[in-house]
Every structure is written in C-alpha cells, then in structure tokens.
Amino acid sequence: MGDLVPEPKKVGLLYRDLGIADVSVGDGRRGNALSSDDWRELEQIFRRLAEDDQVRAVVVRGQGGTFSSGSDMREWVQADRMDVAESFAAMEAAFTAIEDLPVPVVAEVEGVAAGAGCQLALACDLRVLADTARIGMPIARLGILVSPLFAARLSVLAGPGVARELLYTGRLVSAEEAVRLGLATRSVPAEDLAATTRRLVLSVVRHPPSAIRAAKHAVDVALAPARAAARAQAEGPPVAYDEFQRGIMTFLSRSPASGPDRDSSEG
To answer: Which of 127, 131, 172, 262 is spaced 20 to 30 Å from 187 by Cα?
Structure first.
C-alpha cells in the first residue's frame, strides 16, 4: 500500500508589499467548501494577523475561480449533535476573528459565495465581486436554523426586509443586484477583479495606519449594539437535526453535475 497523500492545505496566508496580507481559502475543489479544521485554521490566521502591527490590510479570496460554497457537508453525515454544534461554532469563531481584526479586510469574490461562504464575505469590511459572481444564504432547505449572527450580517448591510427575503427564499443574487442591495461594494468584469481589488486596497493603505484603524474602530462601535444583541441570542442548536440529516444526504446524493463539486451552496 502506497504512502497516503495529505490533503492540500485549504487555508493559506501570504504577505505582500506595503503591509498587505492575502488569505486564500479552499483548494479549488468542491466549491472551496471548508471543514471544521479549516475554519479553526482561518480563525487562528486572523488572530495572528491581529497581533502584527505591520499588517495594514487583508484580502480574502478563494482558489480555482470561486470564493466558497460554505462548509464541507461530508463531515456532517451521521455526525452527532455535539459535533455539528462544534462545527458551527468553529465557523462563527472565524467570522468573529475577521470582524475583530483592527485593519480593513476586503473579500475578492468570484464564482459563488453561499451559506457560510456568504457569511465569510459579509464578515469582511468590503466586498468586490466579479460580475459573474453570485452570493446568498440558501441554508434553510438543509434544516439549518439561521442564527441571529448570520441574520445580523445580512440585516446590517441590506436591511431587515432584504435579509428576510434572502433567508426565506434562499436565492442567490447576482453581483449587480448585490451592489444594489448593499451586500457588495462594487461589481466589476471578472477579468478586472484582481486589479480592481488591488487598486482598492492601495487606496486604503496609502493613508496613515492609525487613521484607518481608527476609522474601522469607529464603524465597529456603531455596529456593536446589533452584534451584541445577536450574540446574546445565539444559544441553541444550529440545526433541526433530523431534517438536517435528510437535507445533507439529499444534497450529497445528487449527480456530480449538480452535487458538491459544482459551484453551488453548501452549509
């Protein structure tokens, strides 16, 4: 029997010039769906970045032409309730670490940002979407109980009416609509995505770091009541367990053309 080949690392960190850090998620397969361990690694990366005074901005991007379809549902099949709860706690800890970072975080989104992948993008300060990208929260069909924190990120950006409609229907919106709804900062042709993100980040880091950190802190103070209220109500199971198991089994049993290797939503 040959040596086992380790899974490619799904969360990476690269430092670039001018204090800009790039964080990549996924390995280009299965829509860059992340496991619980991947979410924990993402949290640790952002906790380390928070301690680095040389970092002035961070860009988060997916591998292989998509952002992230969310969490890897394969690890939830027949998992017990505690393991599922710990998995959701791991992803929420990653989002909180991003929000806690004292410098701006920009999500560079192509392909799909769905479910937890949508929350990952919304946890960032700014979102630049390729015009072919789609974003949304199609999770209710899986028996996932939308948390107040998930709902708050949508509501703060797009208002409660839009948040309700997207959570109730689970539809993914285009990049153009995402800008109109307030979920995206801008939409650009896919071929211009990287260059546009770079220009945006450079327009941030050219200012004194202390001023940018103060600006982020000031906005965070304004958002603090909504976040605190959501966290105070965040206890409880993350899924309706029996419906959840049926939902993920149905999703994973689809044909390859419409299953998890496709750029569609996961958890």
So the answer is: 262
Confirm if 133 and 110 have CB atoms less than 8 A apart.
yes
CA gap 24, 259 in Å, rounded: 23
Q: Which residues contact 128 (CB under 8 A, 6 or more apart)?
A: 106, 107, 108, 109, 184, 185, 186, 187, 188, 193, 196, 197, 200
DSSP class per residue in 194-228:
HHHHHHHHHHHHTS-HHHHHHHHHHHHHHHHHHHH
Angle at 217 between CA 214 and CA 220, to 5 degrees: 155
Tokens (6 digits) for 13:
């960190």
Do residues 230 and 152 make contact, with C-beta atoms less than 8 angstroms apart?
yes
**Mean pLDDT throughout 84-109?**
96
* pLDDT band at residue 267 using 50, 70 and 90 as cut-offs: low
